[in-house]
Amino acid sequence: MPYAGITVDGGARHRWFAGWPRKFPELEDLWARRGEGEPTITKVKALISGHNRIEGNIVYNVMSKLDDGAAIYCHAGHHSLMKNNFVWRGGRPKTFGLYFDDGGESLLVDTGREGRRFSSQGFA
Prior knowledge:
The protein is α/β, with parallel strands linked by helices. About 15% of the residues lie in helices and about 35% in strands. It is built from three helices and ten strands, in the order βαααβββββββββ. It has helices spanning about 15-20, 25-35, 40-45, and strands at about 5-10, 55, 60, 70-75, 80-85, 85-90, 95-100, 105-110, 115-120, 120-124. It has a five-stranded mixed beta sheet, with no helix packed on it. A three-stranded parallel beta sheet has the order 1-4-7, with no helix packed on it. It is globular.
């Protein structure tokens, strides 16, 4: 597989809304229809992928062409759980089993062992 085995991507919508000056008039219209006042990162999370559960997967032979990624790649999502996944055989020198890219929040990895939990903010 040339890139990641599993990707959880919240997209960049939170940056689109929070960036001033505004660059996307169609998003301004969408937000105005929601009737929630000025957009903030917290309010925009309703439009971003979150609360995903990635569990019990076998992921191998990934990242054969590109370096920047992982077997399980998370970008800009929130409140997701990765648990009991088996990852092996990355194809490039900088391949990772799990990669939390920018914009992710409250992502949790549970290894299934007592006291062995890791979150996007550090060890839990």
